Amino acid sequence: MRQVKLKYWHQGRVVLTGDAAWCATPLSGIGTTLAIVGPYVLAGELSKTDNYAQAFANYQKIMQPFVKEGQGTPQFVISALWPRTRIGLRFLRAAMKVAGKPAIRKLFSKVFLRNSNQIKLPDYGMKTE
Ligand SMILES: Cc1cc2nc3c(=O)[nH]c(=O)nc-3n(C[C@H](O)[C@H](O)[C@H](O)COP(=O)(O)OP(=O)(O)OC[C@H]3O[C@@H](n4cnc5c(N)ncnc54)[C@H](O)[C@@H]3O)c2cc1C
C-alpha cells in the first residue's frame, strides 16, 4: 500500500473531501474525524461566498495542516503492515507477537497517534435547532 497525496482537492466545479481527497490510511486513526471536519469546513466556506473557486481554495488551506498530520504515518510502517514478500510477512508476524508488550505499545502509540489539535475549527455561525 502506498499513500498518494493529491496536490489539489478541487478542479473546476468538482471538489473532493474525506478519503477521496486525502486518504490518511486506516492506520492514522483520524480518518473518520477528517471525513467529518472536511465537509464541515467545505460547507462553511461555501456559505461565506458565491465564489466557489475561492471557497474551495480556502477549504484546502484550512484543512491542509490537519490532513498533513493525518497523513504523517511513516511509509515504512504502512509497507510493513501490508507485506508483499514472505520475509515481510514473517517480519509482520514476529512484530505482532511482541506488539502487546508495554514498551512496544508505547512506541506504537508515539508513531500512530495523530494530533487532532492541528486545526482550529472556524465558527461559521451555523445554528442547530
Ligand atoms: C480497516 C480500516 C480501519 C480503520 N480504522 C479507523 C479508525 O480506527 N479510526 C478512524 O478514524 N478511521 C479509521 N479508518 C478510516 C475511516 O474508515 C475512513 O477514513 C473514513 O471512513 C472515510 O470516510 P469517507 O466518508 O471519506 O469515505 P468512505 O467511508 O469510504 O465512504 C465513501 C462511500 O461512498 C460510497 N461510494 C463509492 N463509490 C460510489 C459511487 N460511485 N456511487 C455512490 N457511492 C459510492 C462507498 O460505498 C462508501 O459508502 C479505517 C479504515 C479502514 C479500512
Structural class: mainly alpha
**Helix content range:** 55-70%
Mean pLDDT: 88
Number of helices: 6
Largest sheet: 2 strands, antiparallel
Strand order of the largest sheet: 1-2
Instruction: Give the termini separation.
Output: 43 Å
Bound molecules: flavin-adenine dinucleotide
Number of domains: 1
- The count of β-strands is 2
Please identify the oligomeric state.
single chain
Low-confidence stretches: none
Please supply descriptive tags for the structure shown above.
mainly alpha, two-stranded antiparallel sheet
What do you see in this structure?
The chain is mainly alpha-helical. It has one domain (10-118). Helix content is 56%, strand content 3%. The chain contains six helices and two strands, in the order ββαααααα. It has helices at residues 19-22, 31-48, 52-70, 75-81, 86-98, 102-112; strands at 10-11, 14-15. A two-stranded antiparallel ribbon has the order 1-2. A hairpin with a 2-residue loop joins strand 1 (10-11) and strand 2. The longest helix has 19 residues, at 52-70. The chain is elongated. It starts with 9 loop residues before the first strand and ends in a 17-residue tail after the last helix. The relative contact order is 0.17. The structure holds flavin-adenine dinucleotide (FAD). Residues 18-20, 26, 29-33, 35 line the site of flavin-adenine dinucleotide. Flavin-adenine dinucleotide (FAD) binds at residues 18-20, 26, 29-33, 35.
Short description:
The chain has 129 residues and is mainly alpha-helical. Helix content is 56%, strand content 3%.
Secondary-structure topology with pairs:
Layout: E1 10-11, E2 14-15, H1 19-22, H2 31-48, H3 52-70, H4 75-81, H5 86-98, H6 102-112
Helix pairs in contact: 2-3
Residues 18-20, 26, 29-33, 35 line the site of flavin-adenine dinucleotide (FAD).
